[in-house]
Design goal:
The structure is a homodimer of 333-residue chains. Chain A is α/β, with parallel strands linked by helices and 333 residues long. Helix content of chain A is 43%, strand content 15%. In chain A, the strands form three sheets. A six-stranded parallel beta sheet of chain A has the order 2-1-3-4-5-11, with helices on both faces. In chain A, helix 1 packs across helix 3. Chain A starts with a helix and ends in a 13-residue tail after the last strand. The model of chain A has no long low-confidence stretch (mean pLDDT 94). Chains A and B meet through helix 4, helix 5, strand 2, helix 6 and helix 11 of A and helix 4, helix 5, strand 2, helix 6 and helix 11 of B. The structure holds a DNA duplex (30 and 30 nucleotides).
DNA sequence: TCCCAGGATGTTTACGTACACACAGACGAT
DNA sequence: ATCGTCTGTGTGTACGTAAACATCCTGGGA
């Protein structure tokens, strides 16, 4: 292995001067710097990351936690996060799975400088402790009301309300709902806004048309089949997220029902798939790339200064009407 | 920060004894070990990863390179890789993008112990050098014939041949092909097997029914539209991968054509989406989880002993017939 | 009873980098 | 001429862990 000492010897300077050239901030005479750079190239020198980390307490690495990478929403989010991190010269360690404890351990071991959680469901003691110690942690996409830390989310309540407005305005009265899991803030807020606005408009959500859709395709598919098999099925179904909406459409398709002729379907997230011809699903768009960039820059700020006050960024969302709803007049029931 | 020295002081032993307890291999008396473990818990001790790496030259971290994480195939592969790494106590650093040079640099800086490339397209000098230095590198999914390193792939030639057999046996004569990019071994081998077998069976692929489908949905969609808009369109189209097949189906749907009544579509990879009702696409299955496990265990072996001879694991693949082909009799043309 | 084997534990040091500090030389102000 | 300042560079050391080596102690065999 080639060390900075070897480079120093080759360039006829001290090891410290090599280090200064490396950091590119210290004062080094131009011709000395050139000599050192030449020696580095000649020796094929690469600084040893662990040694640098040892001194600086920085890893240039950020951890990202995702509950389920096979949900197409997360690859889209991850792509944007990865791009922002890459632009900032940071590496990305990925944890897949509902349990973020591995990531928190890594933070304690100094393997990463900070963490982005995209799928928190509750403020575990471990997470609460880390936040209390002012560890650099940003919640992206899903938030936690009770936790005082940086959070980057969208206004899911407003999104839910927008869907309610839309469905009532288009004349629906038998409105179904495939709800998500109980804990994620996204699912809770969407449901809350949806229910609240429906009630305000005089069409409170009928409990027998509300079914657990999970955040999974197969769960949503069978829930949709159950809804459609009733004597008086819903004319429109709002789904907790896009993956659920895809499942709902497939549930309808599996029964020979047509969307939107027999039933309207609305999702949430605007994953790429929903725009494809076979699905063409009305959904609520989140500004994924902007959110990812905001989360990354916020995290890097906090890594630089842990004393910053926690901030909550809430991005707007937008209803995108596609073929699963408006392109056909709503069937009268 | 709590160090092993603090723990040692608390337990009334030397720092080295703490280190021995940590490694769990050295000889430590049971009651001493208990005392040390108690002190660790009391102090909330976490070993400092960088310091350990400094001494052991091991990071317990593996890098994974993926060209495009939004292609649903890769999240499925990544999920399996992540699970296998997690089970082995390894962290995963992810690089998204066609360029793996960042990962190779990380290897040089000692940030990762080894690399898994899932989407190599060519043996760049950088990659060749790393392999020549016996760096732990495994190619997963896509291979490189000319590179002497560990590779875990499927028999894409056999897969291509199986599709040719199937289409000819079911009576197709006007067979279309949406080819993938030129470089990836998967695309090349599938095409080679497909062409070869078609020729053997007396139905060589007609060049005017072969179109560039890329490995992207939108490219495939418009290529399919072009094919179907011809005076004498194909009765079946084989696509370079599933994402391409999804695009092909959507291209057909966008023209009001029906699958399989108007045209058959076959993909490759068996991503979860292809089994969903709205697509229901015949495809060639790869044993994704097994491959991921093989790649991980192979990489860890090589990290342990760089002198192992390079090995190539080639897994079998299997044609899965679904609704995009066989469920309806092939229309006579 | 003595000695030695072998297990348990301690001491010293090195991994490669960057920080704190020291110091030499150049140059301008007094 | 003297002093102080500033720039460029070198010296010593510390980060936290684990390897190598040293040392202590216990117990069993002669």
């Amino acid at each position: 292995m080639v060390t900075s000492r070897d480079v120093a010897r080759l360039a006829g300077v001290s090891q410290m001067t090599v280090s200064r050239v490396l950091q590119d901030n210290g004062k080094v005479a131009p011709q000395t710097r050139e000599r050192v750079l030449a020696a580095m190239r000649e020796a094929g020198y690469r600084p040893h990351a662990a040694a640098r980390t040892m001194r600086t307490r920085r890893t240039a690495t950020v951890g990202v936690v995702v509950a389920d990478i096979t949900n197409p929403f997360y690859p889209q989010l991850l792509e944007a996060v990865a791009e922002a991190l890459d632009a900032a010269g940071q590496r990305m360690v990925l944890w897949n799975g509902p349990d973020g404890s591995g990531a928190l351990e890594s933070l304690d071991e100094g393997t990463v400088d900070g963490l982005i959680f995209t799928t928190v469901t509750e403020a575990t003691p471990q997470l609460g402790d880390a936040v209390a110690r002012a560890e650099p942690i940003v919640l992206l996409h899903r938030g936690l009301d009770e936790l005082d830390c940086d959070q980057v989310t969208t206004d899911n309540v407003a999104g839910g309300r927008a869907v309610a407005d839309y469905l009532v305005a288009t004349g629906h009265t038998r409105i179904g709902f495939l709800r998500g899991p109980e804990l994620p803030s996204t699912a809770r807020h969407r449901e809350h806004g949806f229910r609240e606005r429906l009630a305000e408009l005089g069409h409170p959500l009928s409990e027998d048309l509300s079914a657990p859709g999970g955040f999974a395709h197969d769960v949503a598919r069978s829930a949709m089949r159950d809804l459609l098999d009733r004597a008086d099925p819903p004319t429109a179904v709002f789904c907790a997220n896009d993956l659920t909406a895809l499942g709902a459409v497939d549930g309808a398709v599996s029964l020979g029902r047509r969307v939107p002729e027999d039933v309207w379907v609305i999702g949430y997230d605007d994953i790429a798939l929903t725009a494809w011809d076979s699905y063409d699903i009305t959904t609520v768009r989140q500004p994924i790339a902007e959110m990812a960039r905001a989360a990354v820059s916020r995290l890097l700020e906090r890594i630089g200064d842990r004393d910053l006050p926690a901030r909550r960024d809430c991005f707007p969302s937008e209803l995108l009407v596609r073929g699963s709803t408006a392109r056909t007049p709503h069937p009268a029931h």
